[in-house]
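User: Some background: our group keeps a shared notebook of sequences we're curious about, and every so often someone picks one and asks for a predicted structure to add to the entry. Today it's my turn. The entry only has the sequence so far, pasted here. Could you supply the structure so I can complete it?
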Amino acid sequence: MSKKRLLTRSKRAAGRRRSFRVLKILLILASLGVIIFSLSFMSRSSFFTIEKVEVKGNAVTDTALIESIVFTQSKGLYLGLFSKKNILLYPKEDIEKAIMKDFPRVESVALSATSFNLIEVTVRERTPYALWCATSDSPCYFIGSNGFIFTPAPSFSPGVYIRYRGSIGGGDPLGQIFLPDSFTAVFSFIKEITHIGFSPSEVLVKSDGDIEITTSEGKLLASTNNDLGVGAENLRLFWGENKKDLPSFSYIDIRFGNKIFYK
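Assistant: Of course. Here's the predicted structure to add to the notebook entry:
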């Protein structure tokens, strides 16, 4: 009989332990539920809700449109529980990406929370260095120093900006890069010839890489297939020796290394 009593007590004790474990798990789950619900409720509190957006650094990009992107990207809930408008949880990276995508003119953007209800958006807009026009008759666009085409340009009198012409491969020009593999070299070359004393107004880059540069003095012929840094130095030496004898010229051709042809 004693063995049966011990076995019975052991089973009852095991049952109580199982019940206690189940109760413990239920209490933990209930506690987690209360915590999650509380955090969800707090995330929607007006004390932490974004109510105002302040935009800085934009001279051209529309302030209201940037504000609209911030509020649009902040709509909704994470996991159906936590507000995206919460100052601690707002989708910062998504907002920055959306602004960069919608406004090619914006070179960089940074968001920061300056109070519990205010988001500050600081943008840096691209500086227009030149114009890109597909042809002499087509509309022109502003481009940066890396060839990035970022906004349509109004009509300018000749000489205000250097005009680059050449193909970009079709499609909407905005957001594309003119001469992605060689624009930086071409841009530096144009700066160098300006320092030498030429006044370039138009740069035509042909499909084979040849460059035809229109200047006030005459045309310069170069090629993206060559080292334009060496070409600029050769032109500097040539111009230093022949400038007095060539107040104007039809062309100077530096496509053939140290052999410079002119007319």
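Suggested note for the entry: The chain has five helices and 14 strands. The chain has three domains: 1-43, 46-125, 130-262.
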